[in-house]
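In this section we walk through a basic example: taking a raw amino acid sequence and producing a predicted 3D structure, encoded as C-alpha cells. The instruction is simple. Fold the sequence below.
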Amino acid sequence: MHDSAKRAIAKFYFDYRTVLDATRVADLGALNINGATKDVIAHAVGFDIVAGKGVDVVIVPGTVPPEHRHQYGAVVTSSSFSFCPDPLAYKKQIIDLLQPGGLLFLTMCSDKCQVRHSTSDNSYGFQDEFRLELRELERFFSTEFEILELTETHYTHPDFILLGKLRA
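The resulting C-alpha cell sequence is shown next.
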C-alpha cells in the first residue's frame, strides 16, 4: 500500500470511526505487502486470493464463502481493484460481503498513474493493468451504490478514492 492509500484509509477511519467501530469491516485484497487496512482498522477481517500476512480468509476470485455473505457493515479495498481481470466479479464480491446500506471505501490508481505495481506471486497471475477514468469509475459503481465521495488524490501517487453506500 502506498502512502496516498494509507492516508486515505486513515482519513476514512477518522471520519467514520463511530460507524466502523460498531460494525464488522472486510478488507478485500488484504495481503500486507507494504501496509494494509489492518494497520489503521485493527478489527478488519482480511480477504485475499492468497494466504499470507493480513489474510484471514482465502477466497476464490469472484466468490465469497457463504458464512461471510452480507455480514459486513463496511468493505475497504485498497489498491486491489486495478489487479482484477474481471471487474464485475470483484464488484459482486464487494456486494456479497456488504449488509444492505453498508459502506464501500475503495482506492485505486487513477488513469493518470503511469506506475505499474507488482504484488507477491499468486497462482492466478493477475497483473496491474486495469485503469478507469473518474467518471467511468462512478458509472461502474453508481447503479448499486449511492456515491458519497469520489475524488482524486494529489499526493506523489495519483489515486481515486470512492466512498459509496450500498443501495437497499
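Looking at the output, two observations stand out. The chain has one domain: 3-166. The chain has three helices and seven strands. In the next section we compare this with other chains.
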